[in-house]
Structure formats: structure tokens, C-alpha cells
Amino acid sequence: MPFDSPAEPRNPRFNPPRIGACVARGLHRVCPACGEGSLFTGFLKVRPVCPVCGNENGAYPSDDFAPYVTIFLILHLMTPILIGADALWSPPFWLEGLIALPLFTAATIGLLPFAKGGVIGFAYALGVRRRTAAQDG
Ligand SMILES: [Zn+2]
Fold first, then answer.
1. Where are the domains of the chain?
2. Nearest to residue 126, comparing CAs of 32, 37, 51?
3. Residue 90, exposed/middle/buried by CB under 10 A (0-12, 13-18, 19+)?
């Protein structure tokens, strides 16, 4: 099982903000705990520890869920555009592909870091952390 609840009993002082606030902070690419420190060191690389509050942001997994969220959103946003364009102008298939494929690719790459931040904020709010080697025995 790749994810687990915290191995130790939950810290009674652990009182994260509401899920919506944590996800919103992640979507803004800032630390879900304090909302001030930068969540990423690069385009998709998570800063392991928040420079402002010291929260271990690297412990919260996003793994494959962020790309799933991104693909889900892009397909639901772009499909009506494609269908609408097809219905209105009936462009040739090659022209539609020539325009749509780079547009889909750019939109997917552009949305991915925000989705990853939102997923990390969601994991933080729920207390979902990566298992460490020490927890495996
Ligand atoms: Zn922080």
C-alpha cells in the first residue's frame, strides 16, 4: 500500500485549514499549511520543506492523481470546443488536428502544476502522507 495514514497517532495539535482552503492554496502553488511559502522549486518539483512554516510538503503524494485530474479537466473543457468548432465551421480533419493537438498539449502542460498543487493541498488536508522506509520495517 503506497499511502498510509500517519504512522504515529495524529498530533492533537494538527489542525489543518478546511479542505477547500488547502486545495485553493495548492492551486495557487503555495504551501497548503501556511499559504505563504512557495510549494514548488521548479515547474513540477515540490519544495520538500516550506521555507516559511517548515511544513513537510514533500511528504504529501500527488503521483498519478495530478495528471488524471489534468486530463479529466482538459478533456471536459476542450471537447465542447472541438465539437462546437466542428459544427460551426466543419474544418478539414488535418486543420483541426493541426490546431487542436498543440492547443491540447499546451493546455495540459500549463494546467498540470496547478493540479499538482491542488492534489498536494488535498492530501495535506486529509493527512495522507507517503510511507517512509522506517514505517516499512
Ligand atoms: Zn508553509
1. 16-131
2. 32
3. exposed
Distance, CA 4 to ligand 1 centroid (Å)? Answer: 22
Q: What is the pTM of this model?
A: 0.81
Q: How far is the CA of 33 from the centre of ligand 1 (A)?
A: 5
Number of neighbours of residue 27 by Cβ within 10 angstroms? 20
Q: Which pLDDT score is estimated for 137? A: 62
Of 52, 25, 47, 54, which is closest to residue 114 (Cα–Cα)? Answer: 25
Residue 123 has which C-alpha cell? Answer: 492530501
CA–CA distances in Å: residue 88 to residues 74, 95, 99, 100, 101: 21, 14, 15, 15, 19
52 alpha carbon – ligand 1 mean position (Å): 5
Please tell me the distance between residue 39's alpha carbon and the centre of ligand 1 in angstroms: 8
Q: 7 falls in which pLDDT band (50, 70, 90)?
A: very low
Cα 111 to middle of ligand 1, angstroms? 22
Give the other-Cβ count within 10 Å of 60's Cβ.
Answer: 26
Distance (Å) from CA 121 to ligand 1 centroid: 11
